[in-house]
Specification:
about 210 residues; alpha+beta; two-stranded antiparallel ribbon
Length: about 210
């Protein structure tokens, strides 16, 4: 009786740490998982916010361009139809030789816009646009919808290799093959790359 009364069961002589040595490690594992999940959620939230900001900026840019084009004096309804149609194609990727909404090159975009917005046939190439017998006008006299033609070199020298549509007195829309923004984009008419390479402006639409 005495022996059994004084003896302690084996579990009574073990501390809690000895009895459950793996519990703290389990909690540490959960803490790592929770922290990792929090980091992932933060990254996703930042990317979503960035995408939303860029999208809102693009929308504001489009709305500004449309409003500016509408405010241009002497702009007839055909020109506005053309500009609105072109602006809605922003974001379509650049594709060499492309003239569909799967992808455009610069002259393919201009040709597509005139053909599908106004059912007009104009030359398909940049060189053809420049050599056409329609009126050549000064940039300061250009109206929304007029076609700008650019050369490979500054000062308007070198081969004709790019074309764009005037949106308003401050901006153009075109299909760009390289640079920070590619595909169909709106650029300032003072763009540091394109502005020095302007050869001239062609008018395929009457200015009535």
């Amino acid at each position: 009786m005495g022996i059994y009364a004084q003896a302690q069961p084996p579990c009574a002589r073990q501390s809690f740490a000895e009895f459950a040595p793996h519990k703290p490690q389990i909690w540490r594992g959960w803490n790592v998982k929770i922290a990792l999940a929090a980091v992932i959620m933060s990254v996703v939230s930042i990317n979503c916010l960035r995408a939303q900001t860029e999208e809102e900026g693009a929308v504001r840019h489009t709305e500004t361009a449309e409003a500016a084009a509408h405010s241009e004096g002497g702009v007839n309804s055909r020109r506005m139809t053309l500009i609105e149609f072109a602006i809605k194609r922003q974001g379509i990727p650049y594709r060499s030789g492309g003239s569909t909404e799967k992808g455009f090159d610069c002259s393919g975009f201009v040709w597509f816009v005139y053909r599908n917005a106004l059912n007009m046939d104009i030359p398909r190439s940049s060189r053809g646009l420049w050599s056409s017998d329609v009126e050549t006008i000064r940039l300061e006299d250009a109206l929304p919808g007029d076609v700008l033609v650019f050369s490979a070199n500054k000062g308007g020298s070198g081969s004709i290799n790019h074309t764009a549509i005037l949106v308003d007195k401050d901006s153009i829309i075109h299909a760009v093959s390289s640079g920070p923004r590619r595909g169909v984009v709106i650029s300032p008419i003072t763009d540091k790359y394109f502005a020095p390479r302007l050869v001239g402006v062609k008018r395929f639409l009457p200015d009535d």
